[in-house]
Write a structure and sequence with these properties.
Four copies of one chain form a homotetramer.
Chain A (H helix, E strand, L loop, with lengths): L6 E4 L16 H10 L4 E4 L11 H17 L5 E5 L5 H13 L4 E5 L9 H12 L7 E5 L1 H4 L5 H8 L6 E6 L4 H9 L6 E4 L5 H5 L5 E4 L6 H12 L3 H20 L5 H9 L15 H14 L9
Helix pairs in contact in A: 2-3, 3-4, 4-6, 9-10, 10-12
């Protein structure tokens, strides 16, 4: 099984050309950028990476290029590839491909058209995919706000434990801390619980979370490194201030239209990733100027990732 | 453009083998069954057809076999293929394939992971796909309970009209009759509004709906033919009684676990379609027996489709 | 028991003075206005009447003045008083008062803070109130969009039938036509099902509804009288056009901020009712001018109620 | 203004007689019980106290008896009285009464029938009530799961600051830690932010919360005292274990039907409070036995409050 992941796992954006095509040639620089900023892993083809807006061929291509970078560099960075979708056969196809190219772990989403109504149904779907790659660690990616599947993860673990021998843990992108702590406590901490809400990482750290997967770790890794360090060293007031700064930064996503604002932050820190694909809405050039001014006003230049 | 569709459009189930593989060899009999029962069209790869639970290759294969049947028979039956998904590129791929094999029209879903938040964003996504097959009629398939995209269709038509020249109409699977009538009235009835809630077809007929797309038309076409005839001939009390019977029949779907119950009804009328794929839950053999007794108690044998 | 109500039951606005106090002196003119426009009943202290925004003393006072008008005039108009709330004791207090002043029927809401989770719990709450006035007809007022109680009314009737001997029927303000028809059919039409969504009255008429309770019957009764007449006489195309006009009129409520727009319509037809109380937001004087222009553009002057 | 509250504020249950009448004679013993267990305040007539299920006369009576106990004892315990409702006039009436009997602070709910759609509308409603008692500290009680008003509290503070000079803070019963920390940080910590989700108190403590208002502090105060002490003294692993124990205890509320289970816990620790009123469902005697066994199995006798 995978060792539990400590530290920051970035969920990379999918770099796009101006014409909307996938720009895999940008990935080597992206990898170096994350590495330079002390990121412990990359969770690709997820929500931030617009996996669902890509073709399966594109998802495979991205996985190949990322895997190649990491291998070439003999990097300790972990590569997790989201293979989730609504067809378990397509999930299996992507999982087998991941295995064949040396990805470290796969992640599965709850199917998001027909939504499993019970923990059992969800576990059975995941088991079907996981069984195809029995040697690979498998994460469940819990993000009910997007999948519409609101099953409690504590209930899920009770169903999945045993049924999915290669279940490694959960990327937990939801605000139910009661459920999250229950999962951390489950079978003496058997599962790797990766926190997925950057804006309240501190509230997860105090419960015992050791790592997180997030989109803002792409461009503000130093902020979170500092926050974690402050927390670990008992400087909790500083940790709160840094968490508040992360919130101020994240609040701009709401102000400028949502998830696509992340790519605007990437442009800001110097790594152009192009635009999000439809149906996600991108910022206009004019809005970008206002955004840029708002970011400067945060006065946190040294906390952004360095290109 | 397509002529407006009158009468019943069935949304076929995808026939499966016992091992869960697609069983296209059952489609010719399925086609003859629908034809014999006076069905005007087939809306394939939709919710009932588990399009999202299939691979793209399977969706194409089904479309090919259905198109072949209809062509061979020189049938007036219309074939509509749902090409919807979350990646517009995959939608386009399916749309081009549909065009190449002689499908009559395609249908597009709102993307259901990243949900368009405005009518404009939704129209732009649909336009991207529709523009790839400018000679084909395109239906928008509105089913917010599954897609999570709650944009009003009246607003959508205002954005889409002009932007999508080949927009034919909407398969409307939602209970907003204010919105539905507004769409029927839009630009003097320009768009083909196909009602998608069999359980309240009568309430749509009175507003001017001429046709519907539904799953229960697969197995109870005579019931709805009789209902429409009664309504058209002014026997509204009879029409209500038939609608109530349709409701009693549909209520068993809730009682026996949802959408998969449709395939139990198919078995009941004599056309075995196998099971739904995960994550949809299927009825046990034991439950089927109880279901069968409940169906008999409806006392409506002559209103089921004849095999 | 009450006889079933046919025709339009208006849900009167609560007239307010400029200082926000209840203006009961306006009620006699209001009563005459409804009578002149052929309204069959008044449903007071409901959502339109802001019952929940008043003190119990004010609710009683309004009921008294309305009851007095109707009695004095020996009017066939039915008076239904909403006594719903979250405390069954306060509901009972209002119910007993209603009885003592000669109100024709009371109505009960689902409690809307702690929401009954089952039809049984809802029926038990209603039974507790109804038992206090065993000689009075009792309506259940189903409006889940405001109460948050989403229990199916078909299930409710199954629990309430027998348990609440004086249950007269349901004011049904929801879009579930499957549920509505099932209630109409329940025990051979035992219960009086009053439709509560003016914007799709036609879709309820075809199912057998004979009457409705609505806010727009306050100011556009002629429109709905004409619609019902057209439907009853088989002129369904005309009925649809009138329903569309009702929708166009109702759409302005959304455009101008919601429920308070109803009082702007009252001003427009000549019966000043003042403003809604907080937390409902009222239209500015400037917005009223734009609203007035929009109403004129509907070009339906002869379909508004005559003062 | 009120000083910020540190420690545990219990939200007392309303003691009821077997016949469902309010049993104020139980309040002196209740007060002593809380005092003995080191509780810093009592938040009466709230959700736990079923304020909305009582008449206004009962709410006043309870407030009087609680105020009398505290005064008589010259106790440092703070008394906060929820005066929230849907009619601002009734809220004002309760607020003035609270003031007249020496209650320390009042709390206001978002009106929960017509729900304020914006922070401004919510602030205006609260201001109307707060202005009636300008010398009293006022808390806003944020519990969107029950009120249906989902306005962000950070937005609310921006509107309310200045508009409501006597706003003391917020009882925050929601899981939005991003919003909560933003409120804690607002104007250098001007407002008293009382955490309202006992099951994740630890995640609030790390953000700077100093106190909480909760129902489980009624019967498990020692558990939370120990948790807070462990956290404050840097024994975070112990704090987590205690939080997990609190979760295990709270999970039984879900298992045994919800909020009424709290009164079963009170019986367990020796202070009989009777039943919840309709529409809340109470445990049967049989279920109580199973519950009792489950509670014993938690093996935390020494962490329950001592009677």
């Amino acid at each position: 099984m995978i060792n539990k992941i400590e530290g920051l796992v970035a969920a990379p954006f999918s770099p796009m050309k101006e014409n909307g095509e996938l720009n895999v040639s940008a990935i080597p620089a992206y990898y170096n950028f994350l590495k330079k900023n002390g990121v412990a892993g990359a969770f690709i083809n997820g929500s931030t990476g617009e996996g669902v807006s890509q073709t399966n061929a594109e998802r495979k291509l991205q996985a190949e290029v990322w895997a190649e970078q990491i291998k070439k560099d003999d990097s300790p960075m972990k590569l997790i590839n989201l293979v989730g979708g609504t067809s378990y056969q397509e999930c299996i196809d992507l999982a087998l491909h991941s295995q064949s190219i040396g990805v470290d772990a796969i992640a599965i989403l709850a199917p998001f058209y027909f939504k499993p109504g019970t923990a059992k149904a969800l576990a059975e779907f995941c088991a079907k995919v996981a069984a195809a790659v029995p040697e690979m660690p498998v994460y469940f990616y819990h993000i009910p706000v997007l999948t519409g599947c609101n099953v409690s993860m504590y209930d899920f673990l009770q169903e999945a434990d045993g049924l999915i021998p290669n279940l490694a843990g959960i990327k937990y992108t939801h605000e139910d801390f009661m459920d999250f702590l229950s999962c951390l406590s489950f079978r003496d901490g058997k599962y790797d619980m990766l926190w997925g809400r950057d804006e309240n990482l501190l509230s997860a750290l105090v419960l015992g979370a050791r790592g997180g997967v997030g989109s803002t770790f792409n461009y503000a890794a130093p902020l979170y490194h500092k926050l974690i360090k402050a927390y670990n060293e008992g400087r909790v007031v500083e940790a709160r201030q840094l968490q508040q700064l992360s919130i101020d930064m994240i609040r701009l996503l709401g102000k400028y239209g949502g998830i696509a604002t992340g790519k605007a932050y990437m442009r800001y820190v110097g790594l152009e990733c192009g635009e999000f694909r439809l149906p996600v809405k991108n910022m206009t050039a004019e809005a970008y100027k206002a955004f840029e001014a708002d970011v400067r006003a945060l006065n946190m230049e040294e906390l952004f990732s360095k290109f």
